[in-house]
Amino acid sequence: MSKGIEIKQMGxxxxxxxxxxxxxAFQFQKSAEELEQLKEQFGAEPAVRYAVxxxxxxxxxxxxxxxxxYIGGRRFAMGGLAGVAxxxxxxxxxxxxxxxxxxxxxxxxxxxxxxxxxxxxxxFYRKFGWDTYIEHxxxxxxxxxxxxxxxxxxxxxxxxxxxxxxxxxxxxFASRYNGALVRPELWWKYRISERKQGQTAVYYANNGExxxxxxxxxxxxxxxxxxxxxxxxxxRGALWSFIxxxxxxxxxxxxxVPADDLLPYLLPDxxxxxxVIPYFMARIVDAEAFVAQYAFVAASEEDHxxxxxxxxxxxxxxxxxxxxIDADGMGKLRRLDATERVDTCIKLDIGAFTTLLLGYLRPLxxxxxxxxxxxxxxxKRLQMRIPERTTYLADFF
Length: 397
Prior knowledge:
By secondary structure, the chain is of the alpha+beta class. Helix content is 29%, strand content 33%. It has three domains: 5-112, 3-Layer(aba) Sandwich (Aminopeptidase); 137-278, 3-Layer(aba) Sandwich (Aminopeptidase); 285-384, 2-Layer Sandwich (Nonspecific Lipid-transfer Protein, Chain A), CATH 3.30.1050. It holds the Pfam family Acetyltransf_17.
């Protein structure tokens, strides 16, 4: 650590100075009551919070939330980087870089094989190995463009009970996507209840099974859908019919959906306003441990693909490997010595490696963008062993 610069873990005793910096950096103001609620959350949520002190002065901070994410239907321990902030007099001194590198080492030691963050600037975090892993589609639909109401066999009921019912539906939905959060009870208590206020309605099948829900609010003739979750096509149609029931009291519906959503195709007038929005970034923290958990596509025989992986800020990932994928789809990165290396290896950095394994872009697409270099046949073999799944994240931190 540089002279006069020290990184410390923050505890409850640091809450006030941490919140003072956060309110300044992110330009918000909380009441005394709201600060008490945030203090409770600060102490309850599983997280590690770091502060940088320069000559004993509080200069910068970052939080790593202890979370899990779904990838290929499996749960991965994930470090959610949040609240990165620096006082202006200490900016451009490399303090955030030190925090990021320190956080990566700590995440690796804790078994968090991947990390997500919401960037203030994509280019800044790309330098440290994070890369885009998700984009949303945002729709604005005029009332007269809403889907026609349809008949359905189940029922929709307004809901005000505990989050456990909603979480059971959400969990089945989220596990279909790469990069969706596993939501613990505290996440619903502190995050969902705060950010997604309004009305909740649940769709029940004819046999009483809950198969979907909507969280939304109506204000100033705008219906804002905070969350639309469904487990089959009938449920999707029923929930959109429910939205259309509000047509007499609204002018527009605003909703953010996964990148693979096909609603416009089903509309009588598909010329709705659509916007594609890059959202979160991801980076693999520990390549060998991540690959060991990852579910590749099963095949009739094993694959052995040599790769050269570069990672400037997590040097334990740097090196030449054979990516071994067995017939059942289990993978392993085996580090190679100099005598085993071949010229046909695939060369890529940790950001591209993350992007392709999460499924945001395919290996051949990254090759076209010169983010992967090497033997085209090997790149095609790699692509065949990576499952096609949409990335999606319905949360923010």
